[in-house]
Amino acid sequence: MNMLNMTQRCLASGLALCALMGGCPNGVNPPGGGSGTARRLFVGGLAGVGGFARDASLDGNKSPVTQVDGATAQIQDVKGVAVNKSGELLVWSDNSVTPPTGRICVFSGARDVNGDVAPQRVVSGASTLLNQSGRAMTFDVQRDKIYKTTPFATIHIFSDTSLTTFDGDVAPTVLTSTEFNSLGQAHVTADDRLYVIDVQNLAARVLVIENASTRSGAVVPDRIHPLNRLATAIFVDGEGTLMTVEEQGASDFVARYPQIAQQASGPITPGSEFQIAPPSAGGLGVSTMIVDADGTGFLATVVPFQGVLVFESIADLTGVQSASRTLTGPDTRIASPRGLAVLE
After folding, report:
1. What local confidence, expressed as pLDDT, does residue 207 receive?
2. Mean pLDDT across the chain
3. What is the total count of domains within the chain?
4. Dihedrals φ, ψ of 24, to 5°?
5. What is the DSSP string of 147-206?
6. 17 pLDDT band (50/70/90 cuts)?
7. Amino acid 205: pLDDT
8. CA 248/CA 270 separation, integer angstroms
9. CATH of residue 326
């Protein structure tokens, strides 16, 4: 992979904090990321957030290097995970109670934070709207913004997560639209485009919002792309290819739509795809996906097993493919995984 492509892949990932040649592409070398340079995969779920070494040993019943959970950490039923430009670990938790007590906890030193430790900051309260159930979270590391989708046809945007003012009862910017129905997974790219899965009358489509960081209130999606199958996960890589995890019957596919930013509004069909070999997640069991700077794809699954499927060179696969590695088992402490993030 050449240097330009690696930089593009890093910049395109709204969930990855990328270090390239001693620093991030945007010039930020995060001081709070923790000691060392070990790459991490963070997996959030019912048991908190596990930090796994992202190397050849990431396979099978692998124990996490770090695990953040417990009463002091104030996280349970994690729905979203990210790493901001200060190297802080951001954890969105719904805390699975009625009514929900949602919060975003901020932990310093994402690479090393471990155990039942107190967060540096906690965003919670009525103004945050986090007590409303949410569906998914994506993070724009360049603009330091969290995007959270909800089942109430709204998108909430939290800004300046690296600042000390990101604490307490902080109100988000709220996006609404007559085109919003049942919003699901989302992904924001380095060029400020927000891609959101929306389900209308049991049919999936991708909504595209340009200049997302500047929008507020009622919006009209700039493009709407109906899909041929239901979709549960979404990612746009550094080459501008939209990837979705789609389900047809009991089979799951990773579909790729190249140069999605240049596509006119309307139905789209995959330029290429591959089917996940049985035992497939089946029945919309893939909850989220990310692709790292090397082009390795990580898919969190909740059925038929709870874990993470790893696909090397995910942009090049065709036919029927088994995962290169599968992270699952009691030692992983992965339970109902909903949030993924990588630290380069």
Report:
1. 98
2. 87
3. 1
4. -80, 155
5. EEE-TTSEEEEEE-TTSTTS-BSPPPEEEE-TT-SEEEEEEE-TTS-EEEEEEETTEEEE
6. very low
7. 97
8. 14
9. 2.120.10.30
Domain hosting 258: range is 3-20+41-343
Angle at 105 between CA 100 and CA 109, to 5 degrees: 160
Asked, for residue 270, whether it belongs to a domain, the answer is: yes
Helix or strand or coil: residue 25? coil
DSSP 242-277: EEEEEEETTEEEEEEETTGGGPPSS----SEEEEEP
Mean pLDDT in residue range 251-262 = 96
Phi, psi angles (nearest 5°) of residue 261: -65, -20
Residue 168 half-sphere exposure toward CB, CA atoms < 13 A: 3
DSSP assignment of 206-228 equals: EEEETTGGG--EE---SEEEE-S
Contacts 24+ apart (CB under 8 A), 269-273: 269/228, 271/241, 272/318, 273/318
**Phi and psi based region of residue 46 (left: phi greater than 0; alpha: psi -120 to 50; beta: remaining):** alpha
**In the chain, what percentage of residues exceed pLDDT 90?**
75
Q: Indicate whether 34 belongs to any domain.
A: no
- pLDDT for 185 equals 95
Whether residue 45 is contained in a domain is answered as yes
- Residues in the chain, overall count: 344
pLDDT at 210: 98
